[in-house]
Design a protein that fits this description.
Helix 10 links the parallel strand 8 and strand 9. The protein has about 350 residues and is an alpha/beta fold. About 45% of the residues lie in helices and about 15% in strands. A five-stranded mixed β-sheet has the order 1-5-4-6-7. Strands 9-8-10-11-12 form a five-stranded parallel β-sheet.
Amino acid sequence: MGVAVFDPAVVGLLEFIRREHPHIRSGAQLTNDQRLSLARRYARQFERGGLVPDASKLARALTEHATLFSWSMRRRGGFRGDLLQRYASTPFRAVFLFSSQDEHFRSVIERYWNDWSEESADTLDFYDYTIRSESPSDYSYSQRKIESLRPVPSADLRRIQAAGLPCMLLWSDADSLVIPFRDVAQDRHKSVERFRDVLSLISSGRIDELKMRFDPMVRALVTSVADIFISYSHADRETTERLDTALRREGFSVWFDASLRAGDRFDLQIEHFQRHACATVVLWTYAAIESKWVRAEALAAHTTQRLAQATVQVTESNLPIPFNAVHAENLTHWPMIPDGFTRLVAALRRFCPASQC
């Protein structure tokens, strides 16, 4: 169900009550004085830094506006109920975070808010709060707001910065994840597909698969290192994205230059990720053969003996020297014929230490 809140401290307080006072499972159990007392205890953890929530204001919201315990709002519709009771009984909770520059993604959330509310039913409650910043990379204001989400387990600034905005914090009693949406934020269909993929996986209890698909993506950025660097021609972007997704599902963290944003130093970023990757996959096509950048990246990987090659619509004999003397897996008919990809994965596991993959 979708729940609109107007301060991240609302969600933080719900989680605080659930963790610190598990016997309180309903707002109906509390008097006004008890609500104020809980709000003050929650605010006390921020006294040594960060944005300190106004406990009196938060407590008034519980009574006057019933924002926390007895009122939740779906876009273009309403739902009345005990929000604390619902919070305690829902297996998964989530918060969307996005900057003021992410208007396209915000419009997707608004457009699909009711649909997602109905689809998530009693499996997932997602809370809407906008982390607004001056630019997608400026977290000076965002950091203070993110801190006010404590003690939400996935509200870790470093992981959020790594995933970038927009993203979704997802947590349960046992697990927490940061689900990146930055790479699909400009594509409405892909954004919707990602949310529904997440919902499908948690609804069917496939949490390990969810972690396998998304944790390596965030881990690669958190550590500024990826297991696999993909070298490709921009003309082959669609094929590269399919390969990227497939490798992540195999448990690898992957980087290619789609992760770069305006203002990034392209040359330094690319050099950094390739140098620290345990293998470079060169996706050879006719366009890649003509690219001086692909050739340079392939040569760097060949020199350090960390080169893995894949071909699409070309053969090894078409490749430039010295790459025509190195074995390449044929992905021309992949995924219909998976043999080449299976062998590529086996080769990459030999490149990457078990601790990383």
